[in-house]
Design brief:
six-stranded mixed β-sheet, four-stranded antiparallel β-sheet, alpha/beta, 292 residues
C-alpha cells in the first residue's frame, strides 16, 4: 500500500489559484511573499486576480503552477510520499516536495527554465499538436517519415499523445496521422515545440543553472519524465532534468511503473485535475484524488 504524489505541469493554471491557501495558512503566505521577492514582481497578485492572458505569460505560467503545487505540499500536515513524479514542469515541484531542492532554488530554476524556453521558442516557428486514437508506435513511425523536425513529446495516456516540432512538419504530420485513422490531430495553442530537439539551446542554458544549484538526495524516489524510472541519485536527477527539455514526457510509462512498484493511491497536488484524469485512464485500478 504505497502512496504516490504527482504534480501538474503548464496548462493547469487558472485565475484565483492559491488564493485560499495564501489566506488560510501563515507559512503559505510567507512562502508566496518570499517568491514575490525572489522573482522581483508580485506573482501572487497575478495568480489570485490576473486574467487568463496574464497567466499565460511565460514568466508567470511556469512559476505560478510550481508555486501552487509546492506551497501546498510544504504546508500539508500529512505529506508522506512513498514516491513522487511530475508532468514536465511538475518534475521541479516534485523535487522540492521531496526535499531534493530548496524552495528558493527550485523557484529560481523554474524561472530560468521558463525564460530559456521562451528564447528557444522565439528562434524557430514551432508548435505542438494533440493526437487522439492511435497507438504510440503508429504516431512515432508517421512522425519519423515526415520531413523536418517532429517528434512524440508527451505520452499522456493510452490513445493520447502530443507531438512537437517545426510548424510545417507538425502540420504535415497531423494530415498523415488523420489519414492513418487518428480521431483527432489538432495543433495546440502553445508558443513552441517543448520536449523536442528545438529546445536544445534552452537545455544548454538550463544545464548551467542546474550545475550551479545544490541538490540533496530526495526523501523518496522520483520517477522522472525521460526515463519513467525511479531515481534518488543526485547526478542522475540533474542529468534527467536537462534531458527532459529535448526528450519526451513518458507519463503513461511512469504511472505504470509506479503501480508496478506498489503504488495503490495517487494524489495530484496543485491546480487542475488533468493528472487525475490521466492516471484513471492508465491505471483504473488505483485510487485517485486531488489537493488544491
Amino acid at each position: 500500500m504505497k502512496k504516490a504524489y504527482v504534480f501538474p505541469g503548464q496548462g493547469s493554471q487558472f485565475s484565483g489559484m492559491g488564493h485560499s491557501l495564501y489566506h488560510s495558512h501563515q507559512d503559505a503566505m510567507n512562502l508566496f511573499e518570499q517568491a514575490n521577492e525572489i522573482l522581483g514582481f508580485r506573482i501572487s497578485d497575478i495568480m489570485f486576480d490576473g486574467s487568463d492572458d496574464e497567466l499565460k505569460q511565460t514568466r508567470v505560467t511556469q512559476p505560478a503552477v510550481f508555486l501552487h503545487s509546492v506551497i501546498l505540499a510544504l504546508t500539508m500536515e500529512d505529506f508522506a510520499p512513498d514516491m513522487v513524479a511530475g508532468h514536465s514542469l511538475g518534475e521541479f515541484s516534485a523535487l522540492v516536495a521531496a526535499r531534493a531542492l530548496r524552495f528558493e532554488d527550485g523557484l529560481k530554476l523554474v524561472y530560468a527554465r521558463a525564460m530559456a524556453m521562451q528564447k528557444a521558442c522565439d528562434a524557430v516557428p514551432s508548435t505542438m499538436a494533440a493526437v487522439l486514437g492511435l497507438d504510440d508506435e503508429q504516431v512515432e513511425q508517421i512522425c519519423a517519415r515526415v520531413e523536418g523536425i517532429v517528434v512524440a513529446a508527451n505520452y499522456n495516456c493510452p490513445g493520447q499523445l502530443v507531438i512537437s516540432g517545426e510548424k510545417v512538419a507538425v502540420q504535415q504530420a497531423c494530415e498523415a496521422l488523420k489519414a492513418a485513422g487518428a480521431k483527432r490531430a489538432l495543433p495546440l495553442p502553445v508558443g513552441g515545440a517543448f520536449h523536442s530537439p528545438l529546445m536544445q539551446p534552452a537545455a544548454e542554458e538550463l544545464a548551467k543553472a542546474i550545475e550551479s544549484t545544490h541538490f540533496n538526495r530526495p526523501i523518496c524516489p522520483i520517477y522522472q519524465n525521460v526515463t519513467a524510472q525511479p531515481h534518488t541519485d543526485v547526478e542522475e536527477i540533474k542529468r534527467n532534468l536537462i534531458d527532459q527539455l529535448t526528450g519526451p514526457v513518458r507519463w503513461t510509462q511512469t504511472v505504470r511503473n509506479m503501480v508496478a512498484d506498489g503504488a495503490t493511491a495517487f494524489v495530484e497536488v496543485g491546480p487542475g485535475k488533468v493528472l487525475q484524469g490521466l492516471v484513471k485512464k492508465i491505471a483504473p485500478e488505483v485510487s485517485v484524488e486531488g489537493v488544491q
